[in-house]
Amino acid sequence: MREKVAIGLSIAAGLLLTYTLYSMFLVLPDEAMQGAIYRILFFHAPAAIVGMIGYFVALTLSVLYLSSGNFKYDSLAASVIEVSLVFSVVNIVTGSIWARIIWGIWWTWDYRLTSALVCVLIFAGYLMMRKAIEEPTQRARLSSALCIFGCVDVVIVWKSIEWFRNNHPGPVLSIRTGGGTMDPAMEHIFYWNFLALLLIAAALVLVRTRQEATAREIDSLRRLANAI
Amino acid sequence: MDARNFTFMFYGFLAAWLIVLIYVISLARRGARLKKELDNVKQLLKEPSLTEPRP
Amino acid sequence: MRPIRQVFAVARKDLAIELRTKESLNAAGAFAIAILLLFSFAFDPDSEQTHRMAGGLLWLVFTFAGALVFNRGFARELPNECLDALLSSPLSAPSLLIGKALANFVMLIAVEIVSLIVFGIFYNVQWLNRPWELAALCVLATWGIAILGAVFGALTVNLRLRELMLPVIIYPLLIPLLIAAIELTNTLLSNQPLTPDQLLWGRVLVVFDIVFTSLAFALAETILVN
Questions:
Q1: With contact defined as beta carbons under 8 Å apart, do A43 and B14 qualify?
Q2: Residue A154: enclosing H or E segment and its boundaries?
């Protein structure tokens, strides 16, 4: 059932991406000041948003694990964080490539880039810690605690670094600016692309969660074999 | 428009999809490894020496 | 025993052990001085630019030296199953965690005082211009470092690569606190008045301390139960 849902989500994402890529390259014009490279935005920003949503979903799942003790919440949290980390890396790399042309440098210590890097480091630490703990209950418990600390810190990191540094482009989506900063046709494709990436993320999380369940099954069968 | 603009746009798209592809491949490999390990452990449990009562 | 007395009992025990062996204090102190020495080669100690960066240099030194202190915090309880004994005792988990954090805090403050003296001498920086503000800043920022150090010291105590994992996990989490401490220290060391924008960083420190101390309280049982 889970495989069918993952396949369904992937097909839906594929169809959406076909539509958005077609629109991006064959319908939308180049942007007035950036030229062709502005199209990176359609992956850069949605990847960042998908990553951030993932971290806060993982926060909820970690709290649910600690209150219920049900391992499925822990598996889901780990899977969501892993997939969110991939999208955060996509965000940083595509941002660097864009910056190389527009700003002339691969990296700048502006607040959004720095915060994104800090998030990647925090949750890479989470995955490293999970690998280092073999006992499943201890792993779930400690990962949940780290996820809660990490997610709370993400909020503080974002606001702190925003006050500290700011030369990243400001918000352009009409939901944040009230309109006039981005062509509505471009914004339309932006939202569809965001949905496509979200569907891909959801499919990957389903696959990963299934693998976590298999790993737990292997662990319990090994213990049974040892006991016998 | 600057030709580098198109090249770097291509690199950007390539980077984004390559990262996702590498992750999907690593997931697929992990899945295959887990399946093999599960089959091995199930086989181990089916072995008669494990399940027969001792004399 | 009331919780506050439990906290002081744990802190007193750790500090007594530390005063007898001086393992962490010597290691952290020596490490701090070594880093300050190395910085003198990376940056010209007499230049105006280095004086402007003094806050950054100091807080990096304190954070790196702090990792040596936190690593020992719970690790010293591992031999002879002392950690199990502590967890089985009537001590509450939050008291144990906060007590450890308090001990970390005192040790870090000692390292900071030594570092400030050495830094003042090596780099010709006047750090006694505004001692009370600097002291308040050090107390707030060091408590934030100490509480996170205690929490993650407990989280990583049984891990294989504890000495590596602890710094890797804790440093990104400390970034907001370090930014705030560095901004305020730079202003105080250059004897400039604190603007309302900079006092914002003071609030960041207070919020950081309150939020993470509360989280540590709430999750102490989760972190410490075996």
A1: no
A2: helix A136-164
Cα dihedral A95/A100/A102/A103 (nearest 10): 100
What's the CA gap between C24 and C22, in Å, rounded? 6
Q: Do C219 and A148 touch (CB under 8 A)?
A: yes
Residue C200: strand pairing partners: none
Written as six digits, the tokens of C221 are 């049982």
Task: Please choose, from the candidates C95, C110, C106, C168, the residue with its C-alpha nearest in 3D space to the C-alpha of residue C143.
Answer: C106
Strand partners, A35: A31
| Domains defined along chain A, listed by start | 2-164+178-217 (1.20.120)
Chains B and C touch each other (3 or more Cβ pairs < 8 A)? no
Q: Alpha-carbon dihedral of residues C173, C176, C177, C179, nearest 10 degrees?
A: 130
Q: How far apart are CA C80 and CA C94, in angstroms?
A: 23
pLDDT tens, chain A, 228 aa long: 778 888 888 899 999 989 888 888 887 777 667 777 888 888 888 999 999 999 999 999 999 999 998 999 999 999 999 999 999 999 999 988 888 888 888 887 777 788 888 889 999 999 988 988 888 888 998 899 999 999 988 888 777 777 666 555 555 555 555 555 667 777 888 888 899 999 999 999 999 999 999 998 998 888 888 877
Q: Tell me if A83 sits within 8 A of A208, measured CB to CB.
A: yes
Strand partners, A31: A35
**Is B15 within 8 Å of A90 when comparing Cβ atoms?**
yes
**Domain spans in chain C, listed from the N-terminal domain onward:** 2-225
With contact defined as 3+ CB pairs under 8 Å, the chains touching B are: A
Interface A:C, Cβ pairs < 8 A: 79
* CB distance B11 to A97 below 8 Å: yes
Q: Is C175 exposed, middle or buried (0-12, 13-18, 19+ CB in 10 A)?
A: buried
A96 vs A92: CA distance, rounded Å: 6
Q: Residue type at B20?
A: V
Q: What is the ipTM of this complex?
A: 0.83
For residues B48 and A57, what is the distance between their CA atoms, to the nearest angstrom? 46
The Cα-based distances of B42 to A220, A223, B50, C80, C90 in angstroms read 11, 12, 12, 39, 45
